[in-house]
Amino acid sequence: MNSDDLNHDDLLNHDDLASDIPAAATGRFFCAESARLRGDPMAGTASPGTVWVLIEYRGGWPPNGFDGLDLEAGTKALVSSAARAARARVLLVRRPGPRRRHGPSQWAVLRRQSSGAQEQLWGTWDRDEDLAEIVPALSSSGKPGFPPVILICAHGQHDTCCAVRGRPVGHALSGRWPELVWECSHVGGDRFAATAVIAPDGVYYGGLDAESAVATIEDHLADRIRAEYLRGYTDLLPPQQAAVVAVLGHFGPAGRNDYLVTETLNEGDHWRIHITGRPPQPEHIEVELQSRRSPPCQLTCRGPTMGSVVVYEPTSIRRA
Q: CA separation (Å) from 130 to 83, 168, 204, 254?
C-alpha cells in the first residue's frame, strides 16, 4: 500500500509511519502530551528488573510484543518459561531506520548483578528453533566488558506516543551511536515517551526529544547521570528510585554506582530513605518523601479507562 493512500488512523497504527504524524493534526488524545501538561512526576517510575532478553524481530510487533508473535510453539514456550524463572523481561528490538530484510537476526541476554557487575551474551537466529539458545544463556554467566545497550521504546502498536516520540529519538541517537542503539517494544510508562532504557545498567530516562536524548545519553556513557530526565534505577523500589533522583537533583550528577540505598523506613504515606555516597559524593544522606495518589486520569493512548498512580514527593534532603 502506498503511504499516500493511508489516512491518519492508518498511519497511527502503522509502526513505520507513526512518527510522521504531528499530534495536533489528528485531534486525538496523546498520553505523553497530556502528562506533560499535567506535570506528571517521572521519578520512581522505572519498571523493576535486572535481566533483559532482547530478540531482534523485523516484522510487525503485536501489541503484546513477544507473547503475540507467531513462533514455533515449543520454542516460544521454552523461552517464555525460562524468562519467567529468571525474572527477565523479553523485549523485541530492531535497528532504527530502514529494516534489514536479509541475514540472521540477533538475540541477547543482558544482566546486572547485585554487585553492579554487568554481563552480556549475544547470539543469532534464522529459524524459530534457534531461539532455544536463549534458555541456557539465561542460566549462564555472561561476558563483561561490553558497552551498554541503548533501548528506545518505539512500540506504536502498544501505544501511539511510543512511536510518535520514540522513533525520532532513536534516529537521533543511532546517528551518534549506531552500534549501541535499538528500538524496542513496550517497557512501561507510555506517558513518559520518549523513554530510553540503558541495559544492563538498569537506568530509565523519560520525556526525551532528539536534542535532550543525545545530551542525556552522552552524559550517561561518561558515567554522569543527571536527574532531569531520570525515571529511576531498575534494581530499586519506586520510593528508593525517587529518593536517588532527588539526591542527584540536589547534589548534582553522579555515577551509576556512586549512591547506595542502605536503609528504607516506611510509616503510612511517609518514607525515610538513607543513602550512602562514594567519594566525592556526600557520605551519608537522608531523604524523606511523602507518597500520594494522583487524581484519576487517562494514562495511555489506547487505554481510555481512568487510572491513578502513586507519586513520591521529596520533602527533605539532608546530609546525615
A: 16, 32, 30, 41
Residue 68 binned pLDDT confidence (cut-offs 50, 70, 90): very high
CA-based nearest residue to 90, from 110, 105, 72: 110
CA distance 177 to 45: 26
Q: Which three cell numbers stand for residue 22?
A: 504531528
CA distances from 187 to 1, 11, 69 (A): 30, 22, 17
Report yes or no: 75 and 132 within 8 Å, Cβ to Cβ: yes
CATH code given to domain 1-235:
3.40.30.10
DSSP state letters, 257-294: TSEEEEEEEEETTEEEEEEEE-TTS-SEEEEEEEEEEP
Per residue in 160-212, pLDDT tens?
888 999 999 999 999 999 999 999 999 988 889 899 999 999 999 999 999 99
Q: Which three cell numbers stand for residue 302?
A: 489506547
Domain boundaries in the chain?
1-235
